[in-house]
Amino acid sequence: MDSVSRLREMIEGSSNIVFFGGAGVSTESGIPDFRSTDGLYHQQYDYPPETILSHTFFMRNTEEFYRFYRNKMLVLNAQPNAAHQKLAQLEAEGKLKAVITQNIDGLHQKAGSREVLELHGSVHRNYCMKCHKFYDAEYMLESHGVPKCECGGTIKPDVVLYEEGLDNTTLSKAVRYISEADMLIIGGTSLVVYPAAGLVDYYQGDKLTVINKTVTPQDKYANLVVQGSIGEILGQI
């Protein structure tokens, strides 16, 4: 039996699926990945992306942070692809219980997924650091220099920057969903960003599935490994 047929069979026999995904789920929607050959790490800026996207850099060089952020992180015309749509469909059918994502683009929700745990936050939520007033992503994209609130405070994206901790409520919900799942599908992630990548260790079942273009550290523990584009593969289910 080929790997896609096996994946289809495993999904059919499961009723408590959790999906854990990363940048590879969004690259097929035209959102640049950090680590792939044409990803953000290969762009031309005075600093590497992980420096720009750090808390220290945000506080010290806010204007340069926003120049990069508007240019590279706010891809607001991106549309969900076959992977996002299939996951939303599986949730609507009652099979998939949660999507746990490292992405910040909101495409899972745009496709119709309801239970989405955003480990690294979202570009669609932005808050004034002074009065906590909310601003959407469109406001950030259209602003110039350092976006300011009407109270005069600086607006910060609700995105987890390097040096910042993940939200504990989101983390504990993710642990609960993964530990209770009968099937865990890991997709579009190289599983090298911690603490997010460590969450998959909480899975206790025997249907651990990895769908990714490249090898991941979990492949040797997986019950099924499907190499390739996640949109293409889930689109065949």
From TrEMBL:
- Record-linked Gene3D superfamilies: SIR2/SIRT2 'Small Domain (3.30.1600.10), TPP-binding domain (3.40.50.1220)
PROSITE patterns membership: SIRTUIN
**Coiled-coil region list:** none
Subcellular location(s) per record:
Cytoplasm
Q: Where on the tree of life does the source sit, at the highest rank? A: Bacteria
Q: Which residues bind NAD(+)?
A: 23, 27, 34-35, 102, 104-105, 120, 189-190, 212, 230
- The residues forming the signal peptide are none
Record note on cofactor: Binds 1 zinc ion per subunit.
Which cofactor is essential here? Zn(2+)
Its catalytic activity? Answer: N(6)-acetyl-L-lysyl-[protein] + NAD(+) + H2O = 2''-O-acetyl-ADP-D-ribose + nicotinamide + L-lysyl-[protein]
Residues of the active site are 120 (proton acceptor)
The enzyme's E.C. designation: 2.3.1.286
Q: Which residues form the Deacetylase sirtuin-type domain?
A: 1-237
- List ligand-binding residues for nicotinamide: 34, 104-105
Keyword annotations of the record: Cytoplasm, Metal-binding, NAD, Transferase, Zinc
Q: Name one GO molecular function term.
A: NAD+ binding
- Any one GO cellular component localisation term in the record: cytoplasm
Pfam families, alphabetically?
A: SIR2
Transmembrane domains' residue ranges: none
Which parts of the sequence bind Zn(2+)? 128, 131, 149, 151
Q: Which PANTHER family match?
A: NAD-DEPENDENT PROTEIN DEACYLASE, NAD-DEPENDENT PROTEIN DEACYLASE SIRTUIN-5, MITOCHONDRIAL-RELATED
Protein family membership: Belongs to the sirtuin family. Class U subfamily.
Q: What is this protein for, i.e. what is its function?
A: NAD-dependent protein deacetylase which modulates the activities of several enzymes which are inactive in their acetylated form.
Which protein is depicted? NAD-dependent protein deacetylase
What species does this protein belong to?
Murimonas intestini
For this protein's source organism, the top of the classification is:
Bacteria, Bacillati, Bacillota, Clostridia, Lachnospirales
Designated gene of the protein: cobB
